[in-house]
Amino acid sequence: KNQVEQSPQSLIILEGKNCTLQCNYTVSPFSNLRWYKQDTGRGPVSLTIMTFSENTKSNGRYTATLDADTKQSSLHITASQLSDSASYICVVTGVPSGGSYIPTFGRGTSLIVHP
Amino acid sequence: DVKVTQSSRYLVKRTGEKVFLECVQDMDHENMFWYRQDPGLGLRLIYFSYDVKMKEKGDIPEGYSVSREKKERFSLILESASTNQTSMYLCASSEAGTANTGELFFGEGSRLTVL
Q: For residue A84, with 0-12 CB atoms within 10 Å meaning exposed, 13-18 middle and 19 or more buried, which class applies?
Protein backbone atom coordinates (compact mmCIF):
# COMPACT_ATOMS: atom_id res chain seq x y z
CA LYS A 1 0.00 0.00 0.00
CA ASN A 2 1.23 3.50 -0.87
CA GLN A 3 2.26 5.43 2.23
CA VAL A 4 3.74 8.81 3.07
CA GLU A 5 5.27 9.35 6.51
CA GLN A 6 6.25 12.77 7.83
CA SER A 7 8.39 13.78 10.76
CA PRO A 8 8.35 15.44 13.14
CA GLN A 9 4.64 15.60 13.84
CA SER A 10 5.07 19.07 15.30
CA LEU A 11 7.87 21.56 15.68
CA ILE A 12 8.35 24.81 17.58
CA ILE A 13 11.15 27.17 16.64
CA LEU A 14 12.14 30.76 17.26
CA GLU A 15 11.75 33.38 14.59
CA GLY A 16 14.85 33.66 12.44
CA LYS A 17 15.93 30.05 12.96
CA ASN A 18 16.13 27.38 10.26
CA CYS A 19 14.31 24.06 10.30
CA THR A 20 14.00 20.90 8.22
CA LEU A 21 10.92 18.74 7.76
CA GLN A 22 11.16 15.14 6.58
CA CYS A 23 9.04 12.99 4.30
CA ASN A 24 9.49 9.27 3.52
CA TYR A 25 7.29 7.50 1.00
CA THR A 26 6.64 4.07 -0.47
CA VAL A 27 4.64 5.22 -3.52
CA SER A 28 5.77 3.36 -6.62
CA PRO A 29 6.13 3.92 -9.49
CA PHE A 30 6.84 7.53 -8.63
CA SER A 31 5.58 10.52 -10.60
CA ASN A 32 6.11 13.58 -8.42
CA LEU A 33 6.27 14.87 -4.88
CA ARG A 34 4.77 18.12 -3.67
CA TRP A 35 5.02 20.07 -0.48
CA TYR A 36 1.90 21.99 0.47
CA LYS A 37 1.54 24.71 3.08
CA GLN A 38 -1.75 24.92 4.95
CA ASP A 39 -2.46 27.96 7.07
CA THR A 40 -4.90 27.51 9.92
CA GLY A 41 -8.48 27.44 8.65
CA ARG A 42 -7.45 27.56 4.97
CA GLY A 43 -6.97 25.05 2.18
CA PRO A 44 -3.47 23.74 1.34
CA VAL A 45 -1.41 25.57 -1.26
CA SER A 46 1.41 24.01 -3.27
CA LEU A 47 4.95 25.22 -2.43
CA THR A 48 7.12 23.05 -4.65
CA ILE A 49 6.97 20.08 -6.99
CA MET A 50 9.78 17.55 -7.36
CA THR A 51 9.98 15.08 -10.21
CA PHE A 52 12.19 11.98 -10.45
CA SER A 53 15.15 13.74 -12.01
CA GLU A 54 15.23 16.69 -9.61
CA ASN A 55 17.33 16.73 -6.45
CA THR A 56 16.78 20.26 -5.17
CA LYS A 57 14.30 23.02 -5.80
CA SER A 58 13.91 26.37 -4.09
CA ASN A 59 10.98 28.71 -3.66
CA GLY A 60 12.18 31.75 -1.77
CA ARG A 61 13.15 30.66 1.73
CA TYR A 62 11.82 27.16 1.10
CA THR A 63 14.15 24.50 -0.33
CA ALA A 64 12.95 21.00 -1.09
CA THR A 65 15.23 18.04 -1.72
CA LEU A 66 14.45 14.63 -3.15
CA ASP A 67 16.36 11.36 -3.02
CA ALA A 68 14.39 9.05 -5.29
CA ASP A 69 16.65 6.10 -4.47
CA THR A 70 15.91 6.18 -0.76
CA LYS A 71 12.41 7.61 -1.31
CA GLN A 72 13.01 10.56 0.97
CA SER A 73 12.33 14.26 0.71
CA SER A 74 12.99 17.20 2.98
CA LEU A 75 11.72 20.76 3.18
CA HIS A 76 14.18 23.25 4.60
CA ILE A 77 12.95 26.63 5.78
CA THR A 78 15.56 29.34 6.14
CA ALA A 79 15.34 32.33 8.44
CA SER A 80 11.85 31.46 9.63
CA GLN A 81 9.15 34.11 9.94
CA LEU A 82 5.99 34.18 12.01
CA SER A 83 4.00 33.69 8.81
CA ASP A 84 5.68 30.31 8.34
CA SER A 85 3.52 28.96 11.18
CA ALA A 86 1.38 26.41 9.38
CA SER A 87 0.98 22.74 8.62
CA TYR A 88 3.30 21.39 5.91
CA ILE A 89 1.99 18.42 3.99
CA CYS A 90 4.01 16.07 1.79
CA VAL A 91 2.00 14.63 -1.10
CA VAL A 92 3.32 11.94 -3.44
CA THR A 93 1.69 11.01 -6.73
CA GLY A 94 2.38 7.72 -8.44
CA VAL A 95 2.04 6.75 -12.08
CA PRO A 96 -1.40 5.24 -12.58
CA SER A 97 -1.92 2.03 -14.54
CA GLY A 98 -5.07 3.61 -15.87
CA GLY A 99 -7.25 6.60 -15.15
CA SER A 100 -6.11 9.71 -13.38
CA TYR A 101 -3.36 10.54 -10.92
CA ILE A 102 -4.45 10.08 -7.31
CA PRO A 103 -2.07 11.58 -4.74
CA THR A 104 -1.14 10.04 -1.39
CA PHE A 105 -1.00 12.46 1.54
CA GLY A 106 1.22 12.55 4.58
CA ARG A 107 -0.34 13.61 7.88
CA GLY A 108 1.61 16.84 7.93
CA THR A 109 4.07 18.59 10.23
CA SER A 110 2.68 21.40 12.33
CA LEU A 111 5.21 24.23 12.56
CA ILE A 112 4.93 27.03 15.10
CA VAL A 113 7.30 29.97 14.88
CA HIS A 114 7.58 32.01 18.08
CA PRO A 115 8.79 35.61 18.18
CA ASP B 1 -6.32 33.42 -10.59
CA VAL B 2 -7.48 29.86 -10.21
CA LYS B 3 -10.35 29.37 -7.86
CA VAL B 4 -12.14 26.60 -6.04
CA THR B 5 -15.12 27.85 -4.11
CA GLN B 6 -16.89 25.95 -1.36
CA SER B 7 -20.36 27.22 -0.63
CA SER B 8 -20.24 27.25 3.16
CA ARG B 9 -17.30 27.92 5.46
CA TYR B 10 -19.15 26.86 8.62
CA LEU B 11 -22.20 24.67 9.09
CA VAL B 12 -23.95 23.33 12.16
CA LYS B 13 -26.39 20.49 11.62
CA ARG B 14 -28.31 18.05 13.77
CA THR B 15 -27.93 14.29 13.76
CA GLY B 16 -30.01 12.74 11.00
CA GLU B 17 -30.20 15.83 8.83
CA LYS B 18 -29.30 15.68 5.15
CA VAL B 19 -26.30 17.88 4.38
CA PHE B 20 -25.12 19.24 1.04
CA LEU B 21 -21.62 20.61 0.56
CA GLU B 22 -21.12 22.36 -2.74
CA CYS B 23 -17.89 22.98 -4.61
CA VAL B 24 -17.35 24.94 -7.82
CA GLN B 25 -14.10 25.37 -9.78
CA ASP B 26 -13.43 27.82 -12.60
CA MET B 27 -10.35 26.16 -14.11
CA ASP B 28 -12.11 23.69 -16.42
CA HIS B 29 -10.44 20.84 -14.53
CA GLU B 30 -11.53 17.30 -15.20
CA ASN B 31 -10.70 15.91 -11.75
CA MET B 32 -12.46 16.90 -8.56
CA PHE B 33 -12.00 15.52 -5.07
CA TRP B 34 -13.59 15.61 -1.64
CA TYR B 35 -11.41 15.13 1.42
CA ARG B 36 -12.05 15.31 5.12
CA GLN B 37 -9.36 16.51 7.47
CA ASP B 38 -9.19 15.57 11.14
CA PRO B 39 -6.48 16.39 13.69
CA GLY B 40 -3.71 13.81 13.65
CA LEU B 41 -5.17 11.97 10.66
CA GLY B 42 -4.39 14.34 7.83
CA LEU B 43 -6.46 14.49 4.66
CA ARG B 44 -8.45 11.42 3.75
CA LEU B 45 -10.08 10.95 0.37
CA ILE B 46 -13.86 10.44 0.43
CA TYR B 47 -14.76 10.46 -3.27
CA PHE B 48 -13.31 11.72 -6.50
CA SER B 49 -14.58 12.29 -10.01
CA TYR B 50 -12.61 12.43 -13.23
CA ASP B 51 -15.48 13.37 -15.50
CA VAL B 52 -19.06 14.55 -15.48
CA LYS B 53 -21.39 11.92 -14.01
CA MET B 54 -18.38 9.77 -13.07
CA LYS B 55 -17.46 9.05 -9.48
CA GLU B 56 -15.06 6.77 -7.68
CA LYS B 57 -14.88 5.83 -4.02
CA GLY B 58 -11.90 7.00 -2.07
CA ASP B 59 -10.60 5.61 1.19
CA ILE B 60 -13.56 6.51 3.42
CA PRO B 61 -16.79 6.70 1.34
CA GLU B 62 -19.12 5.22 3.95
CA GLY B 63 -21.91 7.60 4.92
CA TYR B 64 -21.29 9.89 1.95
CA SER B 65 -22.40 10.23 -1.65
CA VAL B 66 -21.47 12.66 -4.40
CA SER B 67 -22.95 14.24 -7.49
CA ARG B 68 -21.27 15.68 -10.53
CA GLU B 69 -23.86 16.86 -13.04
CA LYS B 70 -21.68 19.61 -14.48
CA LYS B 71 -17.93 19.73 -15.00
CA GLU B 72 -17.40 22.69 -12.71
CA ARG B 73 -19.50 21.48 -9.78
CA PHE B 74 -18.94 18.59 -7.39
CA SER B 75 -21.31 18.09 -4.46
CA LEU B 76 -20.80 16.02 -1.33
CA ILE B 77 -23.94 14.68 0.32
CA LEU B 78 -24.37 13.34 3.82
CA GLU B 79 -27.70 11.49 3.65
CA SER B 80 -28.10 11.31 7.43
CA ALA B 81 -25.47 13.26 9.31
CA SER B 82 -23.88 11.69 12.36
CA THR B 83 -21.66 13.19 15.05
CA ASN B 84 -18.62 11.29 13.75
CA GLN B 85 -18.91 13.27 10.53
CA THR B 86 -18.00 16.46 12.36
CA SER B 87 -14.89 17.54 10.46
CA MET B 88 -13.27 19.95 8.04
CA TYR B 89 -14.22 19.11 4.45
CA LEU B 90 -11.94 20.17 1.63
CA CYS B 91 -12.74 20.18 -2.06
CA ALA B 92 -9.96 20.13 -4.66
CA SER B 93 -9.56 19.99 -8.42
CA SER B 94 -6.76 19.07 -10.80
CA GLU B 95 -6.07 18.60 -14.48
CA ALA B 96 -6.32 15.15 -16.02
CA GLY B 97 -4.19 13.31 -18.55
CA THR B 98 -0.69 11.88 -18.72
CA ALA B 99 0.87 15.35 -18.60
CA ASN B 100 -0.74 16.02 -15.25
CA THR B 101 1.68 17.42 -12.71
CA GLY B 102 -0.70 16.38 -9.99
CA GLU B 103 -1.16 19.80 -8.46
CA LEU B 104 -4.34 20.01 -6.44
CA PHE B 105 -6.11 23.34 -6.08
CA PHE B 106 -8.07 23.47 -2.86
CA GLY B 107 -11.04 25.40 -1.65
CA GLU B 108 -11.01 27.17 1.71
CA GLY B 109 -12.77 24.31 3.44
CA SER B 110 -16.16 23.75 5.06
CA ARG B 111 -16.15 23.12 8.78
CA LEU B 112 -19.14 20.95 9.63
CA THR B 113 -20.35 20.37 13.17
CA VAL B 114 -23.02 17.72 13.74
CA LEU B 115 -24.80 17.98 17.07
A: buried
**Which residues, including other chains, have CB under 8 Å from residue A39's CB and lie 6 or more apart?**
A86
One pLDDT digit (tens) per residue for chain A, 115 residues = 789 999 999 999 999 999 999 999 998 888 899 999 999 989 999 999 998 888 999 999 999 999 999 999 999 999 999 999 999 999 998 877 666 677 899 999 999 999 9
Q: Which of A80, A87, A105, A91 is nearest to A9 (CA)?
A: A87
DSSP A20-87: EEEEEE--SSEEEEEEEEE-TTS--EEEEEEETT-SEEEETTEEEEEETTTTEEEEEE-S--GGG-EE
CB-nearest to A34 from B45, B96, B103 is B103
Q: Chains A, B: CB contacts under 8 A, how many?
A: 57
Which of B30, B104, B109 comes nearest A103 by C-beta? Answer: B104
Cα-Cα end-to-end distance for chain A:
41
